Amino acid sequence: MAQKQRVFSGVQPTGKLHLGNYVGAIKQWADNQDAYDNIFCVVDLHAVTIPENVDPKQFRAKSLEVAALYLACGIDPDKSTVFLQSHVAEHSEMAWLLNCVTPLGWLYRMTQFKAKAGSNESVGTGLLDYPVLMAADILLYDTHRVPVGEDQKQHIEFTRDLAQRVNNMFPGADLVIPEPMIPPAGARVMGLDDPMVKMSKSIGETKKGHSIGLLDAPGTVKKAIMSAQTDSGNEARFDHAGPGVRNLLDLYEVLSGQGREAIEAEFHGQGYGKLKKALVEQVVAALEPVQTRYAELTGSPDYLLSILRQGAERARGIAATTQARLRDAMGFVAP
Ligand code: TRP
Questions:
Q1: Disulfide engineering: 173 pairs with which of 89, 169, 316, 329, CB 3.0-4.6 Å?
Q2: Closest alpha carbon to 163 in 135, 128, 184, 200
């Protein structure tokens, strides 16, 4: 049998993981676990690139929370590798090797750096270097596919360019050139308060009514959906609805598993209250098992840590092999 393709994805332990992350990403990965060799990494080293935002106590709790939520959403540690980036030292070492090959101009061009750095002259070097660490994450595992949002496309292009450059400069490095896996537009959940922006982890953390957190209580879910932005019409057809209503319809479609015709027959021509109430029920039902598993996992922190250690051990094995190949190609003396 042909070897399974490797999928690597990372999520920063910052902000509030939400329904969009679940339906647009984590749930799909969980459903596809048998088709790929999946590696899911909580990228805690990336989270410290804006050190002003790091409160050590919260940071530690958040890293564990995100890992537990992955498992609670159905990522099975017997099938997929889940670990914390900082537990595998090869990530930092690989970033150094790649740093030395990365033209500074490539980093100054990155739009995310420009947006995050703004006019702040005291930004950390790590923020500029963020794309190199991300390239290290991906290249260390000979990754074929990287599921990411549209906003991360430039980072994947950067990773591909860098891998080509290393392969040209150091024959034998044989870094695998990864492909992005961008979810189709329909799989994107938009903000409930503003359907023109994607539901966001960082906005959701501070702004009520923007997102539905995976750990939100039913009452909070209800409030957010019932006050979601719609329009004054009664159009509930997928191809004609305004963006706010379309967002609710799309979510209802994914969560209920019903066909579009049935959904339109049920809600078209009515006030949006009916659609919203039905959606509240679907969302609460979808989150309930996730929250139950999450509570179990946080109730046994030793178990969670043992999963993360096992994950790190497997990851280290793969990462060390790739890194040894690069070191050798570059001419380092083997230890
Ligand atoms: N930059 C990604 C984001 O903010 C997170 C990330 C870090 C990542 N390393 C990665 C994603 C490697 C995919 C693969 O969403």
A1: 329
A2: 135
Is residue 198 within 8 Å of 12, Cβ to Cβ?
A: no
- Residue 147 Cα to ligand 1 midpoint, Å, equals 9
When divided into structural domains, the chain yields a total of 2
Å from CA of 126 to ligand 1 middle: 14
Could you tell me the residue range of the domain that residue 79 belongs to?
6-183+300-330
On whether the CB atoms of residues 91 and 319 are closer than 8 A, the answer is yes
pTM for this prediction:
0.94
Q: Treating both helix axes as pointing N-terminal to C-terminal, what angle do 272-299 and 301-330 enclose, rounded to 10 degrees?
A: 90
CA of 53 to the centre of ligand 1 (A): 18
* CATH number where 54 lies: 3.40.50.620
pLDDT tens digits, residue range 130-174? 999 999 999 999 999 999 988 899 999 999 999 999 999 999 999
Query: Look-up: residue for tokens 């609710």?
Result: 248
Fill in the DSSP letter of residue 299.
H
Amino acid of residue 35? A
Catalytically active residues, by annotation: 116, 198, 201
Length of the chain in residues, anyone?
Answer: 335
What's the Cα-to-Cα distance from 69 to each of 6, 31, 42, rounded to whole Å? 22, 15, 11
Residue 15's SS3 state is coil
**How many whole angstroms separate alpha carbon 144 and alpha carbon 73?**
24
171: its two tokens:
């024959």
